Amino acid sequence: MARPIWNGTLSFGLLNIPVALMPGERRMDLHFRMLDSRDKAPVRYERVNADTGDEVPWKDIVKAFEYSKGNYVVLEPDDIRDAAPQSKESVDVEAFIDASAIGPAYFEKPYVLVPGKKAEKGYVLLRETLRDAGKIGIARVVIRTREYLCAVMPQGDALMLILLRYPQELIDVQDYRIPEGKLSDYRISRQEMDMASQLIASMQADWKPDQYKDEFRQRLSDVIKKRMKANKVSHRPEDELEDAAVPENAATNVVDFMSLLKQSLATNKRTPPKAAKSKSAAKGSDSTASKASKKAPAKSASKAAQRKGTMANGKTASGKAAGKTSKSTTTARKAAKATTKKSAGSSGAGSRKRAASTKKAA
Asked: Helices 120-133 & 257-267, crossing angle to 10 degrees?
């Protein structure tokens, strides 16, 4: 089973349902590597300076926005971090609308909301209420570092979370040349309309998604397998994914849903605004910063003491070494003087003996 993206809550009114956000799609694209045709070695890409051609390490790379050709605005990591939303691990429903009110162009990517431990009652309550009313919830969700607009809707026994595109991400169809007007403007007769209706009726079928396959991928996979068999290449077994445990959240079966629903209706209160969350997050960051600042002097003092101790030990060791060196030098000098005196005495005695023998001979 796939791993949850995060474990959090689905909130509407005063109700908070512990859920896990799970992926709702599986990418089946075939990924290819680029090789050098001469020796079949993999080709890798390097980050190089466009002017000098030198490779640029990751530590020297910054992010910038090119607002005109050759002109950039450099963004610091703090700028991107501050722009990220404060709230996380929550789906905050802001309104409920008709299920048919959203056009298909707005739907982008599916996810599945899985109830946490002992949260099945609130999950089923919301699912069946949406189904009976024909409504879907419009909410905001944070995935990793970005906030998305999304729709919460029932599908079978599950609650689906579908990421929605923002209006500015869509191209207005009026920007294209689309035929407008009545049937008579295009000389379409009633008989042609009837024939087209009969053709559509003859091709009517139930939606069975299992009967539709990615034929291009299948054909390409067959070619790859034939090449592998011809070259006697053995494939590696795929690593088995570890089963993700069902999230355990601090929810119990004793939640009084009736009282929470009554309070939500009486106060018409929606999900708490994010300002409170951001304030609490700011307080938490301030307290963390103050704790870190208190610990910093102690750490710096201990590091300074260690450096002083190391320097003192170094000086002591160097002093001892210097003392030993001076003592050895003095001993060597004394030995040299004694040797010189002995050699001088022996040479003098030899010369006196030679002089005496000369006198006797004379």
From this structure: 50
Strand partners, 244: none
| pTM of the entire predicted model | 0.60
Q: Is 338 a member of any domain?
A: no
> Is residue 270 in a domain?
yes
Q: Cα–Cα distance between 4 and 90 in angstroms, integer?
A: 13
- 87 C-beta neighbours (distance < 10 Å), count: 19
Q: Please, are residues 106 and 166 in contact by the beta-carbon 8 Å criterion? A: no
Q: Has residue 36 been placed in a domain?
A: no
SS3 content of the chain, % helix, strand, coil (to 5): 45, 20, 30
158-164/107-115 β-pairing? antiparallel
Helix (H, G, I), strand (E, B) or coil at 267: helix
d(CA 298, CA 106): 55
What gap in Å lies between CA 244 and CA 6, rounded to an integer?
Answer: 12
| pLDDT tens digits for range 157-206 | 999 999 999 999 999 998 999 999 898 899 999 999 999 999 999 999 99
Residue pair 96/136 in contact (Cβ under 8 Å)? The answer is: yes
Task: Name every residue whose Cβ is closer than 8 Å to that of residue 98 and which is 6 or more positions away in sequence.
Answer: 134, 135, 136
CA angle 322, 326, 332 (to 5 degrees): 145
Neighbours of 56 (CB within 10 A): 13
Contact 135, 153 (CB under 8 A): no
pLDDT digits (tens, 9 = 90+) for 69-78: 989 999 988 8
Coil vs helix vs strand at 262: helix
* Domain interval for residue 252: 1-26+59-170+213-278
Question: Has residue 79 been placed in a domain?
Answer: yes
